Amino acid sequence: MKTLLIAATALGLTALSTPAAAQTDQSPTEAANARIVADFYDMAFNRHQPTQAARLYIGDRYIQHNPAVPNGAAAFYGYFEGFFKDHPQSRATIHRVIADGDLVALHVHSQETPDDPGRAIVDIFRLENGKIVEHFDVIQAVPRTTANGNTMFDGDKAD
Amino acid sequence: MKTLLIAATALGLTALSTPAAAQTDQSPTEAANARIVADFYDMAFNRHQPTQAARLYIGDRYIQHNPAVPNGAAAFYGYFEGFFKDHPQSRATIHRVIADGDLVALHVHSQETPDDPGRAIVDIFRLENGKIVEHFDVIQAVPRTTANGNTMFDGDKAD
């Protein structure tokens, strides 16, 4: 919880202190990794400074598993510098930060505009010595309606 | 690592001891939750016993965030009992188990047949008192080729 509140403060978010994410038992390294990844993500995807974020937080190598993107930090920030020029309202809301060992998973709602149903994303980052060195993700379009009355993100809302 | 090896033994998998998943620092509760979720997943999606898995591992309530599925365990096992009759070769390979507090995330490759490129999935489960009570997921089709030469799952394979 401590780390989530720190991240929430850093990100200016209100969605992190949900019941679903209220319990954590992170080691000091896991808490540090969670903070690094949350700061990286906020700088890149909300402050729209992907090049600066990469310089601060990505290691000398960056192994990419998003199937559309080449390896290396330059491919990441090169793409998103252009993307944010075309999508200045783009936002990423982090709903969950799940840190275990050298991995940090983020459960994210990405939107190009405030009205965009957007995409559900889980990003998994691997860290070495405080730097992000590897990235996996899974991305799905968010539908406008659901069969259960819940969103894809909000926790503990149904009975 | 200990938990991953236990899970690997339980699941009969060889893909879990990758460099990307080699480090963990789970509390006893996190390790127990990881084991519960891995056992549930293997019983449901590899041994094709979703009803039995739900009875053993899902709590009195089950809050569903997959947008296509109603709340409750019955909607889950009712669908998959039929699915596995139609897809007897269906398999789910767990590549990463990420446990933090009351949450366990699985990074999974789901295939309907051995030749199926399949789907990349991250399932996030929340547990209360050793029972699964809430589920989120993100699902994406796996392409046959990638821009980086890596799969969506295998860790630490590039440069």
From TrEMBL, chains A, B:
- The reply on keyword Transcription is no
In terms of PANTHER family, this protein maps to: ESTER CYCLASE, POLYKETIDE CYCLASE SNOAL-LIKE DOMAIN
Task: Identify the residues that the record assigns to the SnoaL-like domain, covering every copy.
Answer: 37-135
Leader sequence segment: 1-22
- Pfam family for this entry, one: SnoaL_2
What are the entry keywords?
A: Signal
Q: Which organism is it from?
A: Brevundimonas faecalis
Keyword Transmembrane helix listed? The answer is: no
Record-annotated membrane-spanning stretches: none
> Which branch of life, at top level?
Bacteria
Descriptive protein name = SnoaL-like aldol condensation-catalyzing enzyme
